[in-house]
Amino acid sequence: MASQSPKSPSHTFMVGQIPVTTIETTTVPPQTTVTPPQTTTTPPQSSPHASSSSKTPSPPKKQKAKAKKKVMYVEPISSAPPLESQIIKPSSSSSSKKKIEYPLQKDTQYPAVFAPGGIKHHPNFSSKTIPADIKLGSNNFMAADAIPEGTPGYGPIFRYLWNSPVSHALSLNTSRMYNHLLQEFWWTAAYDSSTQCIEGTVLRGEKVISIDADVVRDSLQLNYLKKGEKFVLPATTDEWKQVLLDVGYNYHIKDEDKRSKVPNTPRKKDLPGVYHYLLANVIQCLGGNSGSFDQANHYNMQIFEALVTGRKIDFAAVIFQNMVNKVTHSPRVTTVPFSRFFSFIIKKQLGNNVYHQEGYAFQFSKAL
Questions:
Q1: Where are the beta strands (DSSP E) in the chain?
Q2: Please, is 159 exposed, middle or buried when counting C-beta atoms within 10 Å of its C-beta (0-12, 13-18, 19+)?
Q3: Which of 47, 244, 293, 335 is least enclosed by beta carbons within 10 angstroms?
C-alpha cells in the first residue's frame, strides 16, 4: 500500500448557502506492474478495442502522473440533520447498491392490450391516436434510498432530501401498476377550470377519478406546515434563475457573459455535483416527463428553488399544475405521465374494488 501523501491545501467558499471546500490533491499514478488473472497478459486500459486475435498484446504503458485537480467536498448544510440522525426510509427499502439506482417501473414497458370499448379519447389527442398508442413509459421514479457510494460530500444533500417536506413523495411505493387503469384514465382525462379538477374514467367508464391539489397534498403527504403557518407563493422565473446562478449554474463556462445566461429550461448537467443530484431527483422523481431527464421545466425549478432556499411553498399545488399542464397540452402525448402518483391516487379512490387485468411489482434499474 502506497504511503500517505502530506495534507493538501484547502480553500473554503460559499455556493449559495452551502460552504464548499476545495482540496487540491495529486492523483497517484497506478502501478506499472500488472498481475495477470491467469496466464494471459491483460492488455492496457488504453486499448479498449483489443480483440481475440493472435497478436501478442503490448505491455502496459507507464502512465504519467495527472496534474493537480480540484475535488469538491461539501460540508453539511445548516438545515440537514446530523450524521447520526435516522434516515426516513421508504415502505419497501432495498439493499444498498454500489451505484445510484432508481426503482423503475419495468412493468410499464410490458406490452398490454388496452381496450376501452366505446369510451372515446379526449379531443386533445391527435385524431389518428388509437388505443394501442397509449403506453406507460419510464417516469415518476422512486428515489434512491441509500447514499450513493463513491460520492464524497453527497451525504448531507441525501439526508436533507430524505428529511425534507417532499420525502414521502420521493419514497411513495405503489407496489403494483395497473396498466389498463392508467391507460383509460389518461385516454379520458380532462381539466375543468371551474372546479380546478382533473377527471378521467377507469373500468370502462364505471368509475370517475377526480384529482385536485388537495388530493395530491393528501396522497403525497405534503401538508408540512406547522399550526399558524401559511404557504407562500413559489418563485418566479427570475427568482429561480438567480438561485441557479448563486449555486454555480454554468460553472464550467469561462466566458463571463455566457455564464450569466440561464435558459427557461435549465439542464441539470450544467449544475455542480450536489445541485445536479438535487435537480435530478426533482425531475425524475417528482415530475412526469418520459424520455430525456436532463432539462427541467418551470414547475421543476419552483420545487428546486424552494428546496434550496427553504421557501415554504405548496409543493402539492406546483405538482398539480404540472399535471394540468400535461393534460391540457395539445396535442397530448400518448405516454402516461406521473404514472406512480396517478397509480396511487387511482387505487386509493377505488379502495378494495381494484379489478385488474395485469399488475407487476416494481423492479430496480440503474438511472442517471
A1: 10-15, 18-25, 69-74, 101-104, 135-136, 176-178, 190-192, 197-202, 207-211, 335-336, 359-361, 363-366
A2: buried
A3: 47
DSSP codes, 89-100: PPTTPPPP-SS-
The DSSP-derived string for 143-158 is: PP-SPPTT-TT-HHHH
Is pLDDT above 90 for 228?
A: yes
Side-chain-facing half-sphere of 71: CA atoms under 13 Å: 15
Contacts of 57 (CB under 8 A, 6+ apart): 41, 42, 43, 44, 47, 50
Is the dihedral angle over the CA atoms 106, 108, 109, 111 positive or is it negative? positive
Q: Which whole number is the average pLDDT over 128-135? A: 91
Shortest CA distance to 154 belongs to which of 20, 310, 24? 20
* 271 or 114, higher pLDDT: 271
Task: Give the global pTM.
Answer: 0.69
The one-letter amino acid at 87: I
pLDDT digits (tens, 9 = 90+) for 137-187: 888 989 888 877 777 778 888 889 989 999 999 999 887 777 888 999 999
